[in-house]
Amino acid sequence: MRLRACIALLLFLSACATPAPIRNERTVRNPRLANLQRAAKLPWTDGGQCVVREASQPWPVLVERCYRTLDHDRIEFHDTTGRCSIVSADAAAVGLGFCVLAAPEIAVGAVIVLGVVVIGVAIKEALDAYEFRHAYPEEAGTSRGTKVASQEAEAQRKPKPKPEPAGQDWQPPVPPESLERERRPECRPVPVRHLGGNDPHNECADKIPNNSFPGWDVLINGKNFDGLVLTTRTLWDVKTDDFEKQLPRSQRFFVRMKLPELRREAKIARDCGYNFVIGVRSAAHKAVLLDEDPTLKVVIMDWC
C-alpha cells in the first residue's frame, strides 16, 4: 500500500512539474521515446526488455514494474532533495532507490552509475525502430494521421553522409544492393496492426528476440509479416499451431498446403534484401518443413 501511495504521489508531482507547452514548439515530445531515452542511461540486467514493454506508461509506473531488473550493484542513490523522506518515512517499505529514480526529474547527483553504461539491446532496438519509422515519413504519417514531408524531398535537401570509418560501434553495413532494393517503395517496412483473431499467435510474434516492432505486423510489398529484426534484416513468419498432435500423414499434408505461401514470402523477403525465417513450436514441424524444402530457414521458438 505504501508503494502504491508513493507512486500516486510521484505521478502527481510529475504532473505538477511538467511545464506548460510552448506554443511555438515545432514538435511535442513522445512520452514513450522520452522514457526510452531516460532508461538508456541506466544499466539493466535484462537488456531493457521490461523497459520496452512498459515504456508507454508514466515514468514512475515504469520504474515500479522494472525496478527489479536494474543492475543494483552498479547504481548508487542519494536523496539530495529530501523529497523521498516526505513521500514515505518508511524507506525499507518503499526503497530509497525506487523513490529517487521515480521522481519527475532526477536531481544532479541523485543517481550515480558506476562504470560505462552500454545501452540495453532491447532499448537500442526500440530506439532504432523509432528512428527507422521516422526515416520513412510518408508511411509513418499515414499511420499516425499527421502531415509530413517526403523522404525524397528530405534527401534532396541534405548531402549524402560520408561512409563511417571502420571500427564504429554501430550496425553492420548493408550491402549496396539491399539499399537499392529498399529505395523501392514496396520494399519499405511499414508497421501495421496485427491482423487479429489469434491473440496467442500475436503474443508469440511479439516475443521474437530483438523484434523491432513488438505489437505490430510489418507490411512488405503487400504482405504482412509477423516480425522484423532490423539489425539482421530478418523477416519472420510465426506458426503456433499444435503440429505435433497431428498424425504424420496429416502433418505432411498440412506442410504441403502451406509451402506455396511460405515460398512466396521467402521470395518477397529475398527480392527486397531481407532474410526470411519461419518460427515453429516443435522439432517435428521443423523436420517436415525442411524435408519438403531444405532451402527454408526454420527456427524452433522456445519462447512460445
TrEMBL record:
This protein's UniProt keywords: Signal
Pfam families with a match to the protein in the record: DUF6310
Keyword Signal: yes
Chain coiled-coil ranges: none
Compositional bias per record (Basic and acidic residues), positions renumbered to this chain: 154-163, 178-187
Start and end residues of each stretch annotated as Disordered: 141-194
Glycoprotein among keywords: no
Signal peptide: 1-17
Residue ranges of domain DUF6310 in the record: 180-304
Protein name: DUF6310 domain-containing protein
Species of provenance: Corallococcus aberystwythensis
